[in-house]
Design goal:
Layout lengths: L2 H9 L10 H14 L8 E2 L2 H8 L3 H13 L3 E4 L3 E4 L5 H4 L52 H13 L2 H5 L8 H15 L8 E4 L2 H12 L5 E6 L3 H9 L3 E8 L2 E2 L1 H8 L4 E4 L13 H14 L2 E5 L24 E6 L11 E4 L5 H12 L4 H12 L2 H28 L4 E3 L6 E5 L6 H10 L5 E2 L12 E5 L8 H12 L4
Parallel strand pairs: 5-6, 5-8, 8-9, 9-10
Antiparallel strand pairs: 1-3, 2-3, 4-11, 6-7, 10-11, 12-13, 13-15, 14-15
Helix pairs in contact: 2-4, 3-4, 6-14, 8-14, 9-10, 9-13, 15-17, 16-17
The chain binds pyridoxal-5'-phosphate.
Pyridoxal-5'-phosphate (PLP) binds next to α9.
Length: 494
């Protein structure tokens, strides 16, 4: 071999003792030498055999690396003459050093993004959502989840899935799963439905997003609860809707006020079973007013029924959808509370005449839901594990809720109003006049207690100050100490 080709070989290290595979070392070595200008366009390189001999390694990794460099345009072969550094490497490529990173903003130039993307609320990446601890909202008692049964069902459906599930591309979701959901909703939630009307989604959030895309245009007005579930609103903000905050009291959303504010709103988004965050249950008369309004104005009602499985003093409240005789309600449910949030499975019950529209939107979003959890959840429901789990969790949460209410009564002696404790996995406490929930939450955080303020859920000036206290993941024995910390942070005056 000529001296200059040996010089090329020496520029590229290939060391068997390193963790990096040899073919990768050769590829990266050549690429770095080209990008740094040590190897020039048109320059010959040793054949794979020569390179392997020079380095005392097998020829296979060298062949592998060479074919990659040819495929990516760094090398070219000339028939009968060998392999060369490509003669037409762009100038721009040559000026980039191997170590240089792309600039975060691309180094200038137009970088237009859609106006629509700026409608989404700003988010804080890596925020402390992973915090586990007393009073965290949306956290279940996951230590009671039947993981053994769950994993055996996962095994069952991953070992031999069969052609049907591998190629089930129905944007509505698996038929068996929709039948199981339908049976459950009819018997437990008095929902009027057929499996054809059920769409499986990745949690209520996707349900809200699809619903907004199907029903609403930019500029349409939507009644939303004041205070209300913030994240859910993002879907409507992104659709360019005008949100009309309608106050909530002990009977749920005040429909008369909504009509006064904007009678011809296109939709209302409500949590009638257990209002988030205040916890009220929408009264029968408000439900009738809401349904009448929707029918007379040709509007839609979006019912977010996120945690209705857990009711402690009475039987579960029937859904609003079940009272609707004009198919004006889009009913949304989720497995986030009843099982756990990261399962990302929920469903929409769609009025029959809108099913095709919803399916078309869904197809454009993600085609259809992933099969594994659908199959597993179907068996989980059909074989009775779901019902058993709900019954067990109702008991666990009932005890945790009792412990929380007792500790609050003991520590605060009636000075904090407790609301919405009859259902779900959280309750609301209202502060007396003159206290700021934001200041208190900041003090509590210094003491390692993370709590959700009520004021953050208002779009306008908060009419109430207080906290949403989750009890799902807080042990009964932890409750007195946690409430003690809350009391210390509040610094209640006599
Ligand atoms: C009012 C409300 N809706 C829906 C959800 C659940 O959303 P997802 O099903 O997307 O987890 C939550 C919180 O978990 C909620 O508080």
């Amino acid at each position: 071999m000529s001296y200059s080709l040996q010089g090329v070989s020496a520029l590229v290290a290939a060391d068997r003792r390193r963790d990096v595979p040899l073919h990768r070392q050769v590829y990266e070595g050549y690429r770095a030498a080209i990008l740094s200008g040590k190897l020039q366009p048109g320059q010959p390189v040793p054949s794979s055999r020569e390179f392997a001999v020079d380095h005392g390694i097998s020829r296979f990794p060298v062949l592998h690396a060479y074919s990659q460099l040819i495929a990516e345009g760094y090398f070219e072969t000339r028939p009968g003459a060998g392999t060369y550094i490509a003669s037409n490497l762009p100038e721009r490529l040559m000026s980039v050093s191997a170590e240089s990173q792309p600039e975060r903003n691309g180094g200038g130039g137009l970088r237009n993004v859609s106006r629509r993307s700026s409608l989404y609320p700003r988010i804080e990446l890596n925020r402390a959502s992973r915090i586990w601890g007393p009073f965290r909202v949306h956290q279940p008692a996951f230590e009671h989840f039947p993981f053994r049964i769950w994993s055996s069902l996962i095994n069952r459906h991953s070992r031999n899935p069969g052609a049907r599930v591998i190629h089930d591309i129905d944007p509505m979701g698996s038929r068996r799963f929709r039948e199981a959901i339908c049976d459950y909703l009819r018997s437990s939630r008095a929902v009027h439905c057929d499996p054809e009307q059920i769409m499986v989604v990745s949690g209520s959030q996707q349900a809200l997003d699809i619903t907004a895309r199907v029903l609403l245009d930019s500029g349409d007005s939507v009644w939303v609860e004041e205070p209300g579930y913030k994240l859910g609103l993002a879907a409507f903000e992104a659709a360019g809707c005008r949100l009309i905050p309608v106050p909530v009291d002990n009977d749920g959303m005040n429909i008369a006020v909504g009509i006064g504010l904007k009678e011809d709103a296109r939709a209302a988004l409500v949590t009638p079973s257990h209002q988030y965050p205040l916890g009220s249950t929408m009264s029968a008369s408000r439900r009738m007013q809401l349904l009448d309004w929707a029918q007379s104005c040709g509007s839609w009602i979006i019912e977010d029924d996120y945690d209705s499985e857990f009711r402690y003093e009475s039987r579960p409240i029937a859904s609003l959808q079940g009272m609707d005789t004009h198919a004006r309600v889009i009913y949304i449910g989720t497995f986030s509370k009843v099982l756990f949030p990261s399962i990302r499975v929920g469903y929409i019950v769609i009025p029959a005449d809108l099913v095709e529209r919803f399916a078309a939107v869904r197809l454009a979003m993600d085609i259809f839901p992933p099969y594994l959890h659908q199959e597993v959840l179907t068996d989980f429901m059909v074989e009775g594990h779901f019902g058993a789990h709900v019954r067990k969790m109702r008991q666990v949460y009932k005890e945790r809720r009792r412990a929380l209410v007792d500790s609050i009564d003991k520590e605060f002696k009636g000075k904090l109003g407790i609301h919405g404790a009859e259902a779900g996995m959280h309750l609301a406490v209202k502060l007396p006049e003159g206290y700021s929930d934001t200041e208190i939450a900041a003090r509590a955080a210094e003491d390692g207690l993370s709590i959700y303020t009520i004021s953050q859920y208002y779009r306008g000036t908060p009419a109430l100050q207080g906290f949403v206290l989750g009890f799902g993941s807080t042990y009964v024995e932890e409750m007195p100490a946690a409430v003690g910390k809350l009391r210390a942070a509040i610094r209640l005056r006599d």
